[in-house]
Amino acid sequence: MGLREEKKRATRTAIADVALGLFLERGFDRVTVADVARAVPVSVNTVFNYFPTKEDLFFDRQDEVVQRLPAAIRARAAGESVAAAARRAFLAEIDREDPTLGLQPGIAEFWRVIDESPALQARLRHLRDRTESALAEALRAVTGTGADDPMPRVAAALLAAADATLHAEVRRRVRAGDDPTSIRDHLRQMAGLTFDAVERGLPI
Question: Is the keyword ATP-binding assigned to this protein (predicted)?
Fold first, then answer.
């Protein structure tokens, strides 16, 4: 990475970090893009150059989140089912305490802000739709199915729903104040049951 790219990445990270701090302090709907720009400090146009919408400021890792499942499917081992690949990827996220899982210290405030904002809840649903679409494309590519074959879309819907259910359980337990270790143990058990059920229903 060149110096220019490093500077751009550092600026993007600084903007996102400041924005998240303001959102956690005041709530998403009570913070404007101008507030973020003043606090960095950069121009409003600079903020929009990096983040097209205010929701993008909050979900600054959304592309990484959307590509989690498609990446797991593309990296599946020979003979491994898509459900097994998704299960393996999810368990690996638990083991390495991946930030996208949402179990890091202080994360309860992150979920609180989402729960208080209809705009963020709508964006979260949009991210799930994007994940499902990207997953369907990955499944179609790895299975070589034609454009009129519905199975990749069906499989994507089931896998995305399973994944969303597991992450919703994280959110529910974090908001309830459960201990992160107990949440991880529960998630391992729940992931086994969830992906077993999906695998029994999918022929790929």
Answer: no
What tokens were used for 133? 């679409």
Rounded distance between C-alpha atoms, residue 77 and residue 56, angstroms: 34
Please list the residue range(s) of the chain that carry CATH number 1.10.357.10: 62-201
**Residue 150, preceding peptide bond in cis (omega within 30° of 0):** no
Q: Is 162 helix (H, G, I), strand (E, B) or coil?
A: helix
CB count, 10 Å around CB of 64? 13
Task: Catalogue the long-range contacts made by 29-34 (C-beta closer than 8 Å, 24 or more residues apart).
Answer: 29/116, 29/117, 29/119, 33/57
Residue 3: the pLDDT is 83
Give the residue among 70, 62, 72 at the shortest CA–CA distance from 93. Answer: 72
Indicate the class that CATH gives domain 62-201: mainly alpha
pLDDT at 125: 93
| Residue spans of the chain under pLDDT 50 | none
For residue 120, the SS3 value is helix
CB 28 within 8 A of CB 21: no
